[in-house]
Amino acid sequence: MFGRSLKLFRILGFDVRVDISWTFFALLIAMSLALGFFPAVYKGWPAATYWWMAIGGVIGVFFSIVIHELSHSLVSRAFGTGMTGITLFLFGGVAEMQGEPESAKAEFFTAIAGPAISIVLGVLFLWLGGVGGEDRTPLLALFDYLGRLNFVLAIFNMIPAFPMDGGRVLRSVLWAVKGDIRWATKWASGLGGLFGFMLMMLGLFAALSGGLVQGLWWFLIGMFIRSAAQGSYQQMEVRRLMGGVTVRDLMHKDAHVVPPSLTIGELVDKYVYEFQQTAFPVSEHGRFVGVVDTAHLKSLPREDWSRKTVREVMTPPEDAALADPAQDAIAALQSLQQGGADTLIVTEGNRVLGTLSRSDVMKLLGLKMDLESA
Ligand SMILES: [Zn+2]
């Protein structure tokens, strides 16, 4: 879901990261504040003042989002759900959760915590901004803006479109009523998808009737909500179907292991073509010493195949994609997707137990989906 993200700092045990997409968003806010909003509301101030206010505005938006996400994370942690960190991206932030919440109650309070703190911040900033009456200094004008912004943040997030906060609140209520998280997720994410679609159509309509930039924004936000809603339902289904399946259950115990002294020519002739395996664990005296992947052989000139050995081209254990036999199969699949490798080597200590490829996980998932829908 995320592109490249940069870790900024750590607070209360959570990493705060910024995705590359957020920098565009920040730039857009700064420009629309300095050139649009502030000059329109507070006329006659020097251009430099508007820009300083805009920079303050971006910093304020940043901390408003961080505090919003942090309150989700803190409440979730209090309920015992593992949280990995906060990432700011596109037009907001995401508090990353490991797995589904424990109970409907945990989900309700975790979801409502963000908008609730945004309302508190909104009231606080509006009060600060109003201290000097209607005749505001630039600093008070900035506070007034941040007050409004936090209200927008609270209201936008409370739209009942899963996986947004409002959609999570809705899901927790449905979940509590019927006691079935799957049914609740189906309805909440269905509504989320519908809402996203409506926003896209509205954006298209606005764009065609003259409001091109605003229409485009609506369209993009709608598209984002729609795909997030669909993605989160699929993710839950995958977790449910694959729950309890470990790497040990799925791995190939009979995967062929090669010695490091083998030449590449021998590897290709005797192993790759023979067994049609794409990644081979390399083992010496029963110890795991590396991985040789056929993908890496392509860059090797053909005439070197008879001279070069596996030892010279293999990936050392510290750079190899490894899995623990007790690891969750879905977690292993995620690490495959992140690392870009196709096969994980399953090891215990320095012994090779087998291999696990993406297609093994997908095959079982396909089978389970097929049987469940019948
Ligand atoms: Zn939120």
From TrEMBL:
Bilayer disposition of the protein: Multi-pass membrane protein
CDD domains reported in the protein's UniProt record: S2P-M50_SpoIVFB_CBS (cd06164)
Task: Tell me the ranges covered by the CBS domain, including all copies.
Answer: 314-371
GO annotations under biological process? proteolysis
Key words of the record: CBS domain, Cell membrane, Hydrolase, Membrane, Metal-binding, Metalloprotease, Protease, Repeat, Transmembrane, Transmembrane helix, Zinc
Q: Which cofactor does it need?
A: Zn(2+)
Q: Name its cellular compartments.
A: Cell membrane
Q: How is the cofactor bound?
A: Binds 1 zinc ion per subunit.
What family, per the record?
Answer: Belongs to the peptidase M50B family.
Protein name, entry field? Zinc metalloprotease
Identify the species of origin: Hyphococcus luteus
